[in-house]
């Protein structure tokens, strides 16, 4: 769905069978990338970001990284190479800068906002509650695409993972979480997922918060989330979805620190390119129902 198509449908809210609105999960359009996206070949994921911005203005936010000039210049060149006509890298390294008018003005005018990788706590601690934060939410609500890679991906949800053990079984008190930017509700995002062995820490996060969906996104892989709370998988690897609503029991509240988690009944899906997922109905959308064409792109 392009920005113009989104705007045409924005006023129509879709209730589920309980009468809740889809907007409780997602209020706009998101592109959430697991990190290490292809920057030299077909660049499917970055190309999708340009397609979704619908010929408008792209703002690259470098807040997460300690090398903002380098990251901003790199992504500006990549998006321009892919056909974006108006790309601006915005450096916001302090809360004082986040309260300034320059960043807020750039975000209000954006048709797409892209958060680079780095440290997700830098994003939330610098932007949280500022004019830039408010302008980001305004852009999101009016239909701008909000995208993020690696740390920029984790920060987009209401609760984000900020630390935990890689390549290790799920253990209590090893996972650190904090409030995120609040653009995606009822989901917990993890990135570099299979490549860094993060299944255990995402299982722990879902066991502690069974009402949320755990979404682990591999490198060079992304999910494009539409306003109807359905997402579609892009890229070369896979997305792992953990549904905690089906958990029958766990010992997460009984464990002493660092003990191994026991969990029964969690539902796990592994979804490669071409598959989709309905976050409200909690149903997998196979390729024939995800409305993809033969090349893996979403049909118009």
Overview of the molecule:
25% of the residues lie in helices and 25% in strands. The protein has nine helices and 17 strands. Strand 2, helix 3 (68-81) and strand 3 (86-90) form a beta-alpha-beta unit. Helix 5 (101-108) runs parallel beside helix 7. The longest helix has 14 residues, at 68-81. It is globular and about 50 Å long. The model is unreliable at 10-23 (pLDDT under 50).
Number of helices: 9
Mean pLDDT: 90
Strand order of the largest sheet: 3-2-4-5-1-10-11-16-17
Low-confidence stretches: 10-23
Number of strands: 17
Radius of gyration, taken over Cα atoms and rounded to an integer in Å: 18 Å
Q: What sort of overall outline do the alpha carbons produce when their principal axes are compared?
A: globular
What would you call the structural class?
alpha/beta
Tell me what portion of residues adopts beta-strand conformation: 25-35%
The succession of helices and strands, N to C, reads HEHEHEHHEHHEHEEEHEEEEEEEEE
Residue share in helix: 25-40%
Biggest sheet layout: 9 strands, mixed
Cα end-to-end separation = 7 Å
Which oligomerization state do the chains in this entry correspond to? single chain
């Amino acid at each position: 769905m392009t920005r113009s198509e989104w705007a045409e449908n924005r006023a129509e809210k879709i209730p589920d069978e309980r009468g809740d609105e889809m907007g409780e999960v997602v209020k706009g359009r998101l592109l959430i990338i697991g990190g290490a996206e292809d920057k030299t070949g077909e660049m499917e994921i970055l190309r999708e970001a340009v397609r979704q911005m619908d010929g408008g203005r792209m703002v690259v936010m470098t807040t997460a990284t300690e090398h903002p000039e380098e990251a901003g210049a790199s992504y500006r060149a990549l998006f321009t190479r892919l056909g974006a006509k108006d790309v601006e890298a915005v450096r916001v390294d302090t809360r004082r800068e986040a309260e300034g008018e320059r960043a807020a003005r750039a975000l209000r005018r954006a048709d797409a906002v892209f958060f680079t990788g780095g440290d997700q706590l830098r994003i939330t601690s610098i932007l949280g509650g500022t004019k830039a934060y408010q302008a980001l939410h305004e852009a999101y609500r009016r239909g701008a695409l909000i995208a993020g890679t690696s740390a920029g991906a984790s920060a987009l949800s209401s609760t984000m993972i900020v630390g935990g053990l890689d390549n290790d079984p799920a253990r209590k008190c090893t996972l650190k979480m904090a409030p995120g930017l609040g653009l995606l509700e009822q989901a917990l995002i993890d990135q570099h997922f299979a490549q860094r062995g993060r299944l255990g820490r995402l299982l722990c996060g879902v066991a502690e918060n069974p009402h949320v969906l755990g979404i682990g996104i591999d490198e060079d892989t992304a999910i494009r989330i539409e306003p109807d709370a359905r997402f579609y998988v892009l890229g070369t690897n896979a997305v792992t979805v953990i549904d905690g609503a089906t958990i029958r029991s766990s010992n997460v509240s009984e464990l002493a620190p660092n003990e191994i988690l026991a969990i029964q009944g969690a539902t796990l899906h592994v979804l490669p390119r071409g598959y989709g997922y309905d976050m409200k109905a909690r149903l997998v959308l196979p390729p024939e129902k995800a409305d993809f064409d033969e090349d893996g792109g979403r049909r118009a």
